Amino acid sequence: MKPLLPVFARFLGYAVVALGLFMPFLLYMFGMVNDHNLLLYKECSKLLMMFGALMILFAVRKNECAEMLTLRNKAARNAMFFTVFFVFGSMLYRVYQGNLLNVDSSSFLTFLLVNVICQEYLIKKAAIDAVFKR
Fold this sequence. Notes:
4 helices
């Protein structure tokens, strides 16, 4: 997975994820959320977080080397595993509750955010390993 966006897109992606996370709370405090537009704000918030996570994933890092490509691929593999585990666990929980009405529509967002977490972890781990020459 090669980076497609410039370096500043990573910081901008974190800002967009934070905006998507706190936007519903801020709009509720200003009295702009009601029963008629709650679904719209919920889906817009998910969409903002998806765009932000994609910006983080596809942004070039400073001093990026060939090892970074393997770290990106490892992060995507780990994120797929953890997302399948999370979605399967949530499905089992809904079956246990007997909940037939709720449907999980945020599995792609979960994958993207877990991928960002895995990528950040692997990059920091590689930096620490380089310092201690493991």
